[in-house]
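Input set for joint prediction.
Command: fold jointly, output tokens.
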Amino acid sequence: MTTTADTMRKLTYREAVREAIREAMHRDDRVFLMGEDVGRYGGCFAVSKGLFDEFGPERIRDTPLSESGFVGAGIGAALGGMRPIVEIMTVNFSLLAADQIINNAAVLLHMSGGLFNVPIVIRLATGGGRQVAAQHSRSLEGWYAHIPGIKVLAPATVEDARGMLWTALEDPDPVLIFENSGLYNMEGMLPADAGPVDIDRARVRREGRDITIISYAASLFKALEAAEILAKEGIEAEVVDLRTLRPLDERTFLDSVAKTHRALVVDEGWRSGSLAAEISARIMEGAFYDLDAPVARLCTAEVPLPYARHLEEAALPQVVGIVDLVRTMVGGNG
Amino acid sequence: MKTRKNATTRAEPVGREHGLHLLRSMIRIRRLEDKCAELYTATKIRGFLHLYDGEEAVAVGVLEALTLDDAIVATYREHGHALIRGVAAGCILAEMYGRQEGCSRGRGGSMHLFDDRTRFYGGNAIVGAGLPIAVGLALADRMQQKRRVTCCFFGDGAVAEGEFHESLNLAALWQLPVLFVCENNLYAMGTALQYTQSVTDLARKASSYGMPAAAVDGMDVLAAEAAAQLAAAAIRAGEGPQFLECRTYRFRAHSMYDAELYRTRAEVEEWKKRCPITTFTERLRSAGLLGDSDLEQIEAEVAREIREAVAFAEAGSLEPVEDLTRFVYSERRMS
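tokens >
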């Protein structure tokens, strides 16, 4: 066995999040997890499975179905000296807590003139593609990224799923971590001593010279898969993983566009008023003269996600769509 | 179901010193609010302004039951609560002037007074949104084995919000040290209680969560104080959350924009006969605890306090525009 094989191990995105929670609980007595079915049930997506037995009902706290109540209680607990991790089963239910997230967590520091910061971490499952229909398939992370006063993270890799939580818990302000539910079963390799990662910077996940594909979370892997297909045709796509949706690290994607001169944004949100629109505007503002082609966007079709599999697949950004779009963009100007 | 009624009677005796203290506290609020109204008309204060005239006995009575370790969550009608809690009148007025000497640096205004030294967690202007925060503050105390009370003020309007029900359920379920104080002034802005509540007995409603609940005359400072003392003592004894409905009345309009089309002048005049300040003054007087000179002295002291507060606000400075984007995110890391 090589040294690498000794120190690297395989785990799923789900296990990575669970490890991150467990480590935080051991590291800091102020940390606790609260949410619907996080304890006795083991978490809707089995993320917190086993933690109830390990830490008990005080620190792995089952809540009633009261999103506004328990998210607000998390805010209060954060104000009171704790470091709560609040799990909202999915982003769809966060709408019932939007009052607490937007009207309280995001503004208390500001309204108090800097007196009261809110060190809360809110974890939410997000995304479509599992045939659970319109009310359970939204990707509203870009919508939350509109709000000043909160930070919005979208870990795509197992490393980020493992490492972002601790950094978020050390942050003095509210952090929302969006976990795409389609990624929970994804496996990845991690060093045995994997630790915290930064939450400030985007990452180039694949280098290329012909076009920059900007994406995050589940769409990132579609972009990477598309890049492999395109590489066989001689088109080298650079793929940027945003990682943090607010504040946006625009330097990383502007630098990339300056190199490739073309940009495609792939976003599971709807196109109108989307994060993809924001990124497109920033490229226009910051790299207009570097562009050889208009910025393109591939987003979810402007429709509530349907149940039927073929319709849902047609609505979401797919690898084939990315490949086709890149071919026209690069070929048309190539 | 445990519903405590009439926690105290009007015959409760009060010592002279304490009586004068309560009276002075209520007069301080009234004079501050009078000045706010005047300064609003003079356009020194802008935005929304919600005054507390008529409801003073609630804040004064309830806050007597708290120590400086306890936490307060209040509403957008919170000038009086902040003042009695110990936020200087000058800092309150400077806040309404939008000056950086204000208790929230001028970022909050009338509806968002905050103070960390007195654990005053604001002025919340979303009806009902303060209740879950209070639950969380109490949860933090419980988890850190701190024997403190979190006192949450809200109006009758909040009782119709989902957050009210979610919060009472959570607090009762987890037996958290929260004192819920409903300032029932009979109107949710301009809509009367009977048009917004299926059950208008709010204490009864609260008691359905398995929480001891009492209703008191919110125009009677001694009644409010006694009921709050009882409730706070129960909380400190580990008996879980308590609910106190203080039945009161707002003498002025809801805000400076309210034409008061929803109630009659006669109704307001009828309630003014129960003014918590004049009735308590008479009570102290008839008990031989208050002389004319006492009242003159209180009024003179309060007038000076308000005069100095106005001067402080007037002398306040404007935060540089270059600092506009401060306090969106923290400037320091945490330990």
